[in-house]
Amino acid sequence: MRQRLAYLAAVVGLAAVYVVVARIGLRLDAVAGFATLVWPATGIALAALVTFGYRLWPGVFIGAFVANLLTGAPPLVALGIGAGNTLEAVVGTYALRRIPGFRPALDRLQDVVGLIVLAAIFSTTVSATIGVSSLYVGGILPLAEAWKAWRAWWLGDLIADLVVAPVLLVWATMPRVRPPPRRLVEA
Question: Whole-angstrom Cα distance, residue 52 to residue 56?
Fold first, then answer.
């Protein structure tokens, strides 16, 4: 029972953080109201799944779904976008874990290159493609704006995987050192 509650708390916590961060990103000059160059939620989602495992994917899905509903997406469009954002985090995590001995501390060149190529460049195309397709099929985005929206979506996700995810991954792997009380006073 305790493990189930901890899991539920982790999923709800991730979803809540995702919604808050996504809403902030969507307020910043979003193309068609949904694609933005500022999308830190992608980096948070990737770092969460790499650090805590695939089992937190529902937190990403719920967060993305709710954030897009609150932004005005019809439910089916929000489902499509949520699925794309979730699949992006899962694909990015899967790709990184295929790197032999991948270390989230990003202290080896192969881990950094993997993050850049596999997560930031490759997996972000999944979310951009599914998200823009969902907006188009849902009648929210005209075909003439699709490329502009796709590019903004992809770049926003790419930037998050290059800036937000590394900070969280390295922070999560730092050893927890408890300084002596006199050092705390000094700090």
Answer: 7
